[in-house]
């Protein structure tokens, strides 16, 4: 059976989880990414991999050929709104019936930070396009503790202060997308806020990581300047580091600790617990601590 569902950003954490969800449910999907999507767990005839670039209209058109529904995950960049315009215009031409767009919880926060403005621009273009849509606004993914928030050498260096976050498992966000795309009409025009059922500051998160992996992890509450220097040393571009520091200020001021019940409404289950996430990723976290 040919794929009728397109997943963009298939090589990202969330995109890969969405691909896995559909393949696991025996639903064929087309996975679009800038590189060849390689995941040994997904060597399946149900997954059609295609090259993709939001700036290349021919690649966008090819990816959308014979597609009915889309999981739209845009790259984090100031050009997000323009990428959304290019893609959504072609989706309309291609006859796409429904788009699930991944935005971000901070879109609701006033005044908006850069990341929120970029997502808001993309949201606006979709809602005004005439294509049936659902918007997911997830909070920060737990999986960031294996990348951007990783306990490198046993220390988490971030300027979060005592600010707590209702982190959500990317696997849960992918399940929401799957449920919606398989029953799109019931979710048309809806905007969902996807969060965990608990909120943690980094002192508590470090304590829980220590408990699970058996190696001591501490949170070092650094300054914004130090955090920026760390990000630049890791190869993060200056524009992205500055955008992330705005996000970190929201966290520090307790503005990303909202807890929503939308996940339960969509899936009829409760969100994954942070402890369960830590247990699933314990080996990865141990490796980061031991680096």
Q: Explain this structure to me?
A:
This protein is of the alpha/beta class and 291 residues long. The protein has 11 helices and 9 strands. It has helices at 13-24, 57-64, 80-94, 114-127, 170-182, 202-213, 224-233, 238-252, 262-267, 274-280, 282-290, and strands at 5-8, 29-33, 47-51, 69-72, 98-102, 132-138, 155-158, 191-194, 218-221. Strands 3-2-1-4-5-6-8 form a 7-stranded parallel sheet, sandwiched between helices. The chain has a two-stranded parallel sheet with strand order 7-9. Helix 1 (13-24) crosses helix 5. It is globular and about 50 Å long. The protein starts with a strand and ends with a helix.
Question: What is the element string, with H for helices and E for strands?
Answer: EHEEHEHEHEEHEHEHHHHH
Q: State Rg.
A: 19 Å
In the predicted model, the low-confidence regions spanning at least 5 consecutive residues are none
Strand content: 5-15%
Euclidean distance between termini CA atoms: 45 Å
User: What is the residue-mean pLDDT, rounded to a whole number?
Assistant: 94
Shape: globular
């Amino acid at each position: 059976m040919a794929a009728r569902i397109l997943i963009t950003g298939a090589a990202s954490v969330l995109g890969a989880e969405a691909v896995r969800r559909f393949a696991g449910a025996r639903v064929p999907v087309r996975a679009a990414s800038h590189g060849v999507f390689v995941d040994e767990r997904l060597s399946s005839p149900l997954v059609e991999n295609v090259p993709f670039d939001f700036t290349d209209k021919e690649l966008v058109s090819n990816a959308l050929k014979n597609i009915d529904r889309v999981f739209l995950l845009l790259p984090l960049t100031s050009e997000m709104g323009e990428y959304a315009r290019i893609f959504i215009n072609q989706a309309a031409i291609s006859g796409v019936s429904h788009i699930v767009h991944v935005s971000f919880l901070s879109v609701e926060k006033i005044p908006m930070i850069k990341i929120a403005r970029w997502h808001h621009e993309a949201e606006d273009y979709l809602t005004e396009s005439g294509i049936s849509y659902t918007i997911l606004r997830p909070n920060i993914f737990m999986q960031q503790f294996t990348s951007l928030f990783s306990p490198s050498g046993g220390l988490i260096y971030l300027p979060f202060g005592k600010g707590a976050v209702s982190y959500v498992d990317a696997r849960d966000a992918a399940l929401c997308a799957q449920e919606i795309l398989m029953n799109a009409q019931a979710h048309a025009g809806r905007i969902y806020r996807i969060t965990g059922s608990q909120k943690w500051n980094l002192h508590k998160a470090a304590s829980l990581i220590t408990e699970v992996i058996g190696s001591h992890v501490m949170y070092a509450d650094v300054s914004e300047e130090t955090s920026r220097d760390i990000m630049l040393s890791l190869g993060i571009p200056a524009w992205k580091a500055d955008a992330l520091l705005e996000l970190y200020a929201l966290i520090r001021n307790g503005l990303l600790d909202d807890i929503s019940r939308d996940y339960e409404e969509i899936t009829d289950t409760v969100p994954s617990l942070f402890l369960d996430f830590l247990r699933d990723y314990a080996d990865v976290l141990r490796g980061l601590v031991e680096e």
